[in-house]
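User: structure tokens for this one?
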Amino acid sequence: MAFQDKLDDIAEATRNKTLKEESIKRLKGNISMLKKFEISVEQIRSEMLQEYSDVLTSDEIEKCLSVLENN
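Assistant:
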């Protein structure tokens, strides 16, 4: 693998990590906001899985949604 290819791979991995981190922050904020509006747990789960499944894994989304079970 050429040096430039390695640099490109590192840059891509960094972009993906940043995108995931930003998505998790937004997801947590959205969950908090929807809880305040008394949206049902089922509806929040459904909407968040649909909204974030292109960026985050189901496990990552469910981990964020676990706060709903504690209330």
